[in-house]
Amino acid sequence: MKTFSVHKFAACLAVATLVLGGFWLKTTVVSAADSKVHKIAVQVNDNDPKTMNIALNNIANTKSYYDSKDEPVEIELVAYGPGLHMLRADTSPVRDRIAAMSLEIEGLKFSACANTIAGMTKKEGKAPEIVAEAGVVPSGVVRLVELQETGFSYVKP
Questions:
Q1: Burial letters for 36-74: b for 16+ Cβ neighbours within 10 Å, e otherwise?
Q2: Residue 79 and residue 20 in one domain
């Protein structure tokens, strides 16, 4: 009968450690990949309160879903054309909801199109005031393109 030497045992233990260590490392890498940041770009270009509320519902529901899975999400709503009324301080039918959601959802961004602001300024004789929660981007369409080029998924309610 052959005996199992200490050296053979040590060699088998080393191989087993490498195999299990490699499995653990692979599992860790997969877990890190699974927690990627989900990126969502939401477009609003209609002056319709129903569409605006659907967009905000989409944002709230998306954030809630990924929170339930403990996965991070970045969301940016881009408004241009007639949809800029959503982000106007004087005409927005969802102004209070935007203010509340900005406080509730960390990192939520609202972007107003400078081209549309310029057009409204020319037509109305004065620049429309944009809600404090929104930033201004040079072009709403270009901003959506840029977001998609950096991995954002596009949503239009």
A1: eebbbbbbbbbbbeebbeebbebbbebbeebeeeeeebb
A2: no
Task: From residue 118, give the alpha-carbon distance in Å to each of 57, 75, 80, 135.
Answer: 29, 25, 11, 15
96 shares a domain with 19 = no
Q: What is the pLDDT of residues 78-111, one digit of tens each?
A: 999 999 999 999 999 999 999 999 999 999 999 9
- pTM of the predicted model, to two decimals? 0.78
Closest CA to 134 of 157, 155, 116: 116
